[in-house]
Amino acid sequence: MGVGGGAVAPPVVNEASSLAEQLRPMITSDLALAAIASVPRERFVPAHERARAYENVALPIACGQTISQPLVVARMLELLELEEGDRVLDVGTGSGYHAALLARLAGQVWTIERHAELSGEAERAIRGLGIENVNFVVGDGSAGLPEHAPFDAINVAAATGAAVPAALAGQLAPGGRLVAPVGVEGQRLTLLRRTRRGMEATALEPVRFVPLIVPER
Q1: Is 30 helix (H, G, I), strand (E, B) or coil?
Q2: Is residue 111 part of a domain?
Q3: Catalytic: which of 17, 68, 95, 119?
């Protein structure tokens, strides 16, 4: 079996370890930082951007999308409070970097992307690292994957607009956590948690993500 399933691998490249140390003053989760240190970010950026792979900035990828700023990625990992064995839905595969990090910390990850080109490239990058606990789906991320629900955690790597799509929130298991950029005039990273009292939402720091495409139904 490949690396993954909650077993964080040791750092594989000096640059990734240095990036994790750069983020340490802002991230309290040692597990999130260990995941950052174990995944070579240059595998997930276009060749012409690889010299900048370990800068703490978002970078352009194909299909008009981006690979998110490492600080924001680490913060989302931290908020999800992942545990070994968790079932995770990743909405917006993009480069695959976020899915690779989720796979280091959880049991099984389902990642969904509307662009087949991006999904294919992400799968090649992730399989090339020996990570086998990621399942790739091409489709409408706003609808989630009800056939695989419920999920212990849902990571949404695209701005949802005024609210998290009800279909995604409805796929959270009891005690489940969802993290997404939410807002119209200004996005804020938002943590949604399913509790015994119902859904509880906490708006956190401002962020900027590409929009989540929600088809008309």
Answers
A1: helix
A2: yes
A3: 68
Q: What is the CATH number of the domain that holds 141?
A: 3.40.50.150
Phi-psi region of 85 (alpha: psi -120 to 50; beta: other; left: phi over 0): left
Q: Are 91 and 155 in contact (CB under 8 A)?
A: yes
Give the tens place of pLDDT for each residue, 119-149: 999 999 999 999 999 999 999 999 999 999 9
Residue 160 lies in a domain: yes
Convert the pLDDT of each residue in 74-119 to its tens digit.
999 999 999 999 999 999 999 999 999 999 999 999 999 999 999 9
Task: Tokens for 45, please give them.
Answer: 């950026």
Instruction: Tell me if 68 is assigned to some domain.
Output: yes
CB-based contacts of 89, cutoff 8 Å, min separation 6 = 109, 110, 111, 112, 144, 145, 148, 149, 151, 153, 154, 155, 168, 171
Tell me, rounded to whole angstroms, the distance of Cα 145 from its chain centroid. 16
Structure tokens at 91: 């909405």
Catalytic (active site) residue 142:
no
Regarding pTM above 0.85, the answer is yes
Domain encompassing residue 182: 14-207
Number of domains in the chain: 1
Pairing, β 108-113 against β 87-91 = parallel
